[in-house]
Design a protein that fits this description.
CATH superfamily: Beta-grasp domain
Number of domains: 1
CATH topology: Ubiquitin-like (UB roll)
CATH class: Alpha Beta
């Protein structure tokens, strides 16, 4: 099981508390995690990635194993720690301001 941590506003939208657990068939990549997340929680479609381009939305970041994966290719396999569920895949709402 993959562990996914969502920011508070997306947990509220998905009506979940705490960490989301997903079963991923095949290679564990950002794309496969987000595909599974959107399949299990359709109300999240379009909130993390654009409907058409599938590009990450501005002000959304992805982290795993203390690394920022936001600019990595969505098809690069995630670490074994994430794939095994030992470490979570974090979806973080970025902050901006002056």
């Amino acid at each position: 099981m993959i562990q996914v941590v969502l920011p508070a506003h997306l947990r509220t939208l998905a009506r979940v508390n705490g960490t989301v657990e997903l079963e991923i068939a095949g290679p564990v990549t950002q794309r496969s995690v987000l595909d599974a997340l959107e399949a299990q929680y359709p109300m999240l479609r379009g909130t993390i990635r654009d409907h058409v381009t599938q590009q990450r939305r501005p002000f959304i970041r992805f982290f795993a194993c203390e690394e920022d994966l936001s600019h990595e290719s969505p098809d690069v396999p995630l670490s074994d720690a994430v794939a095994s569920g030992a470490e979570p895949f974090l979806i973080v709402g970025a902050m901006a301001g002056g």
